[in-house]
Amino acid sequence: MKLLNIDANAKTVKGQKLGFMTAILYLLPWKHSGVNLCPMAEMAGCHASCLNTAGRGGIAKRGDIIVTDGGSIPNNTIQRARQARTDLYNNNRQAFMVQLIKEIHAFVAKAKRKGLVPVVRLNGTSDIQWEIIPAMAKYQREDGSVASATIFEIFPDLTFYDYTKIAKRFNRALPSNYHLTLSYSEASKRYMQSCIKARADHNVSMVVVTRNLKSKAHYSAAAAMSGANVVDGDAHDLRFLDPANSVVVLKAKGSAGKDTSGFVVD
Questions:
Q1: Of 59, 79, 92, 227, which has the fewest CB atoms closer than 10 Å, so is most exposed?
Q2: Rounded CA gap, 5 and 121, in Å?
Q3: DSSP result, 155-183
Q4: pLDDT (tens digit per residue) in 107-165
Q5: C-alpha dihedral sign at 82, 20, 98, 139
Q6: In Å, how far from its chain's centre is CA 227?
Q7: What 8-state DSSP symbol labels residue 243?
């Protein structure tokens, strides 16, 4: 079982034209594994329209489903693979981290052979606070001290990036090689206010849908008038390239096109 997906989707592969190769870790989101890996999913309203079931991940023969603590997901090879990875993460963290480190080393070597810059996104379909998750129980830092280390310390020259709905992550000192973009939602007033507060210092992504004759261009114009840099989030997935003070506009995909929770901006 492989943990990392390397440029195997239509969006991340666009980064190769910009000189980058992307590896993404896809796990089961929210409560589908029995452990909530997306703690803000209900408040942000994204649990029902998660990208987990977009594309091939949402297709199952004869409508077969897997019943989970989060409801149900299609019974297909993609979801079963995500379940196996997530079970390993939840039940044998040490083995998971050993394999993740091994695969990242191999990925970095592969990218360099192709003349591309390797970048990693650990939360393809999850929202784990990796900056506080030990990757190794014992690790010798540059100053000679030995302590638990995060994945960012083990690969200090590698760029990592993610979207997140956990605004409080911005209250801590994030690793210099880890870029986060906050995912906006109007599903709850409390969550929306946390986005607005974080928006002063951090980039925000916004998923939109073309209902009621509105369009992505409409929201781009609105964001521009607020003084933000407007970024087409569908052009590529390399969020760490976005300029500061940006609103990243993304088109709703899969079941998100029918979302009315407030996560998808109408």
A1: 227
A2: 10
A3: STTSEEEEEES-GGGGGS---TTEEEEEE
A4: 999 999 999 999 999 999 999 999 999 887 665 556 666 567 899 999 999 999 999 99
A5: negative
A6: 26
A7: P
Strand partners, 139: 147
Write out the H or E segment, with its range, that includes residue 5.
strand 4-6
* Domain hosting residue 14, numbered range: 4-265
Place of tokens 């963290």: 93
Closest CA to 172 of 186, 156, 158, 152: 152
Phi/psi-derived region of residue 226, left when phi > 0, alpha when psi is between -120 and 50, beta in every other case: alpha
Listed in sequence order, the residues at least 6 apart from 48 whose beta carbon sits closer than 8 Å to its beta carbon are 255, 259, 261
Query: How many domains does the chain contain in total?
Result: 1
Supply φ then ψ for residue 102, to 5 degrees: -60, -45
In this prediction, residue 186 has a pLDDT band, given cuts at 50, 70 and 90, of: confident
Separation between Cα atoms, residue 243 and residue 228, nearest integer Å: 10
Q: How far does CA 159 lie from the centroid of its chain?
A: 14
Choice between 187 and 83, residue whose per-residue pLDDT is larger:
83
For residue 118, give every residue at least 6 positions away whose Cβ sits within 8 Å of its Cβ, in sequence order, or none.
20, 21, 23, 107, 108, 110, 111, 112, 158
Helices 77-91 and 93-113, axial angle in degrees (round to 10): 120
- Among 192, 135, 197, 124, which residue's Cα sits nearest to residue 163? 124
